[in-house]
Design a protein that fits this description.
The chain is built from 4 helices and 3 strands, in the order ααααβββ. It has 180 residues and is an alpha+beta fold. It has a domain of 112 residues. The chain is rod-shaped and about 95 Å long.
Length: 180
């Protein structure tokens, strides 16, 4: 019975101290008192341990947060270059070597024009890397029914703390038949 009574006594004392602090908090003058047991045993108190725990965990938490943000930027950049490659093949497929229309009789698209079109799309480059576009015709010609391939290469700079600064090179290729 002695340990049970000792626990009850400690609980009652803790509730009294808490009630005293709450009473002081809601009083008009708000005078806070330091409990007597702190001045008796300063080595055994745990005040300040929260500050030390926070100082240890915050850098780890922020490092993980920034690494997660960097990974999200890398995934976004890969999605951006994939879309650039698809847009380039669509442009080349519908502006083939022979696509005269009544509105624009000279609408052919060479490899240089496709590269310029893809580079000039002004996709938001929030990763801060460099984009390289290469257009090729695997069949050897730009005629209707041939294949056009657009390869977009992106050099993604890594800016994470405590990680080597070697850039990540990503590429995406898209192929399509020339329709016109």
């Amino acid at each position: 019975m002695a340990p049970k009574n000792a626990f009850r006594w400690q609980l009652v004392e803790a509730l009294r101290r808490t009630a005293g602090h709450l009473g002081a908090l809601f009083q008009r003058n708000r005078q806070f008192t330091v409990p007597d047991d702190l001045s008796e045993d300063p080595a055994g108190s745990e005040h300040g341990s929260t500050l030390i725990e926070m100082a240890v965990t915050l850098p780890v938490l922020f490092t993980l947060l920034f690494c997660f943000m960097e990974m999200c930027l890398a995934f976004y950049s890969h999605d951006m270059i994939s879309e650039c490659a698809r847009e380039g093949t669509r442009y080349a497929a519908f502006h083939g070597a022979s696509c005269p229309t009544s509105a624009d009789p000279t609408c052919e698209a060479t490899a240089a024009q496709v590269n310029t079109f893809v580079s000039g799309r002004n996709w938001p480059n929030i990763g801060g890397g460099t984009i390289t576009v290469a257009t090729s015709y695997p069949n050897g010609n730009e005629a209707k029914g041939s294949v056009v391939a657009v390869k977009v290469t992106y050099v993604f700079p890594i800016r994470m703390p405590f990680v080597p600064r070697n850039p990540l090179t990503m590429s995406s290729t898209s192929q399509m038949y020339i329709v016109q």
